[in-house]
Design a protein that fits this description.
The protein has about 250 residues and is of the alpha+beta class. The chain has two domains: about 1-35; about 55-245, Glutaredoxin (3-Layer(aba) Sandwich). It is about 35% helix and about 20% strand. It has helices at about 1-20, 25-30, 45, 105-115, 135-145, 160-170, 235-245, and strands at about 55, 60, 65, 70-75, 80, 90-95, 125-130, 155, 175-180, 185-190, 190-195, 200-205, 210, 215. Strands 1, 6, 7, 8, 11, 12, 13 and 14 form an eight-stranded mixed β-sheet that branches. Helix 4 (about 105-115) links the parallel strand 6 (about 90-95) and strand 7. The radius of gyration is 23 Å and the shape is globular. The N and C termini lie far apart (about 75 Å). The relative contact order is 0.16.
Length: about 250
């Protein structure tokens, strides 16, 4: 019996030593976000690894579709056009600052992208307000501060309402509308468009060979799925942005 008790004592001592030496180190690594990324399900996102499949061009009647020309005022009172995004891979969205439904999720997702891609100077975002009468330069500047927007190439844009709606509905086919029947007075698509450095609209091809033109922005990237079971597509968008940033027009 004595040897058996000695074994238990020895094992207990080893466990105690392990706890004293290693557990505090593990806790410290977790607190400092220093856990090995390959051990995480999100390693592909955190390491910004893109897959090898090339992106397609959106083609209309056999022609590659470019971003329609636009010219609006940003949150700093500066006039911004599509030419200001030349040489950058960027994301297009339509939103409004008083939105209480999908806009907060969409813009938190874009902040997630901003923070993950902060070391890339050739990445930008164009956010067009569909309530430009209210969303003045001053309001957009406050919105920038509220959401922690720091990317110098993320422009919150306001201007002529008809031109903005024409850009949304006809230029990008990203639905936008206003009316008393809508919650908060407006309704719009919860999708993002992806633009390459040369101004072409880019997309993936699905398993059936059809273009998947837009990226779902209204599902929280951190939650993964919404209450309807729709999956987030920000991780996919980030992968594709990296393809355009790293490989240009390929």
């Amino acid at each position: 019996m004595k040897p058996r008790n000695s074994s238990y004592i020895g094992i207990s001592l080893i466990i105690l030593i392990f706890g004293i030496i290693f557990i505090p180190k593990i806790i410290d690594r977790i607190q400092n976000n220093d856990i090995v990324r390959s051990d995480s399900r999100s390693s592909k996102i955190d390491h910004l690894i893109s897959d090898a499949d090339p992106l397609a061009f959106l083609e209309i009647d056999g022609n590659k579709k470019k971003v329609p020309a636009f010219d609006f005022i940003n949150q700093n009172g500066k006039r911004i056009s599509n030419n200001d995004f030349s040489g950058k891979a960027y994301v297009i969205e339509f939103f409004f600052t008083t939105c209480t439904t999908i806009c907060p999720v969409m813009n938190n997702n874009l902040v997630h992208l901003q923070n993950n891609l902060k070391n890339y100077k050739d990445f930008g975002i164009a956010s067009f307000s569909i309530n430009p009468e209210y969303d003045t330069v001053e309001i957009l500047k406050e919105y920038e501060k509220e959401y922690g927007i720091t990317n110098q190439s993320w422009h919150l844009l306001t201007g002529d309402k008809e031109k903005i709606y024409d850009l949304a509905n006809n230029g990008f086919n990203l639905y936008a509308a206003s009316g008393t029947g809508f919650k908060d007075g407006f309704e719009h698509s919860g999708y993002f468009a992806l633009i390459d450095k040369q101004g072409y609209i880019r997309c993936r091809i699905d398993e059936l060979g059809n273009p998947k033109i837009y990226y779902r922005g209204s599902v929280d990237v951190k939650e993964k799925y919404d209450i309807d079971g729709e999956e987030e597509e920000i991780s996919m968008l980030q992968e594709d942005l990296l393809k355009l940033i790293n490989n240009g027009i390929k």
